[in-house]
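Working notes for the structural subgroup meeting. M.R. asked for a predicted model of this chain before we commit to crystallization trials. I am recording the input and output together here so anyone reviewing the notebook later can reproduce the run.

Input as submitted:
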Amino acid sequence: MRTDSYRLSAGRHVRAEQGRCAMEWVAHLAGEAHSDRPECVSPVVGAFARSWNDALEETTRQRLRPYLGRMIGTAGDGGDEARAWRCTDWLVRTGAPALLGLAGLGDAAAELPLRCVHDSDSARSAAERVAVVAELAAARRGAARAAAREETGEAGWGPALDGVRWATRMATRESGLDAARAALRATERDTVRDGLTGMAWGAAWNAAWAAAWAAVPGSPAARLAPTLAALQLSAFELLADLLPGEVLELPAARGGVLAPA
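Returned structure, recorded in token form:
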């Protein structure tokens, strides 16, 4: 069965006839009962896929289909620790710097670690730099908000706030930042890693707000769009790194009724 036979839907579904999200399709392909938490899939991979499936718009969501077969058998394969560190490294060295640069903090982004963050020692080494950059991003957000408030005046503040809020929400969802954070929350707790990724995600979030505020009175969404598109491509590469094998056509589904395209 080719990937174009599948239609991935957002959200969790009580019955397969209502549609299937990415993980519900994986359960179907693996011959498991209908569920968005198939037993054959690593908790880290499953959390990433559930979050991103729901974050992506309809057309882009379908690009997850070729990865589904590769998720089968990842549960208990011993790779989740490495997967967690891969997500950490992506947040620190790819996700956060991209949004920091968009917010005019390119010099600060350049101060982030250049070497891979792959264990507690490298995370500790990175933490001090990330903390400084996170503070700068928070300050830039506040300054950009104040400037936008002055630009729009009281009359235009409400629409401007709505536009910035929506653009920022999309920034972390569609870029893969939220999916990477969800994957990390599904793994065993690590104090050093948790602290580092929390700061990196916070820096990215504040940078997205700052970039969106700086676009007022223009379009915050348009300003963020090119950077988000680039991050999205990188996040697909991250997903590929979390999985064994290569992207292939999906195997034949085992019985049942396919969700309508």
